[in-house]
C-alpha cells in the first residue's frame, strides 16, 4: 500500500506542469504567435494532416474596432482518425476536427493549447477507442511540442 502511494506521488510530481485539470493542455512556446502558428501548420501538413483554416481572432477583433492580444486558432484533422473516434461515440463530432490555440498572455508569453485526449475520452465515453484516443494524445503532444520548441 505504501509503495502504491509512493509511485502515485512520483507520478504526480513528474506530470507535465502544462497538463491542466480543465481538459486543456497548455505549453509555453519559445516563439511568437505567428511563428508558433506557422510551425504548427507546417508540422501538421508534413504529417499528412488537413489544416482546414487558421482563425486570427485578433484580426477579427480589430475589424470590430476592438483590441485583442495575438490569438490564433488552428483547425485541423484527419478523417481516418476522426471517423474512428465518432464511430466509438458520435458525440465526439462536436470536438472534431481538432483545434489548437496559440495566444499571447498579458505578460507577453506565447502559449499553445489543445484539448487533452483523456478529457475528450471522458466527455464522450469513447470506451473501446482507448488505443485511438491514446494515439491522438501522443500526436497532439508531438505537434505542439515541435511548434513550441527552440
Mean pLDDT: 88
Number of strands: 5
Content of β-strand: 15-25%
Give the biggest beta sheet. 5 strands, antiparallel
The end-to-end distance, rounded to whole angstroms, is: 42 Å
- CATH H-level superfamily: TT1751-like domain
| Strands ordered across the widest β-sheet | 1-5-4-3-2
pLDDT < 50 stretches? 1-18
Q: What would the principal axes of the Cα set say about the shape?
A: globular
Instruction: Return the structural class.
Output: alpha+beta
Figure out the total of helices: 6
CATH top level assignment? Alpha Beta
Could you describe the 3D structure shown?
It is a single chain. This protein has six helices and five strands. It is of the alpha+beta class. It has a single domain, classed as TT1751-like domain (TATA-Binding Protein, 2-Layer Sandwich). The longest helix has 19 residues, at 130-148. It is globular and about 45 Å long.
Amino acid at each position: 500500500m505504501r509503495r502504491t502511494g509512493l509511485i502515485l506521488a512520483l507520478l504526480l510530481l513528474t506530470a507535465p506542469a502544462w497538463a491542466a485539470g480543465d481538459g486543456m493542455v497548455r505549453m509555453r512556446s519559445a516563439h511568437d504567435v505567428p511563428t508558433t502558428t506557422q510551425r504548427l501548420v507546417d508540422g501538421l501538413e508534413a504529417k499528412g494532416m488537413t489544416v482546414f483554416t487558421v482563425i486570427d481572432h485578433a484580426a477579427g477583433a480589430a475589424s470590430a474596432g476592438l483590441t485583442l492580444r495575438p490569438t490564433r486558432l488552428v483547425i485541423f484533422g484527419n478523417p481516418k482518425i476522426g471517423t474512428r473516434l465518432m464511430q466509438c461515440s458520435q458525440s465526439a463530432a462536436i470536438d472534431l476536427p481538432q483545434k489548437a490555440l496559440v495566444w499571447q498572455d498579458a505578460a507577453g508569453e506565447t502559449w499553445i493549447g489543445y484539448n487533452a485526449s483523456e478529457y475528450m475520452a471522458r466527455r464522450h465515453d469513447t470506451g473501446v477507442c482507448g488505443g485511438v484516443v491514446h494515439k491522438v494524445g501522443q500526436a497532439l503532444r508531438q505537434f505542439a511540442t515541435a511548434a513550441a520548441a527552440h
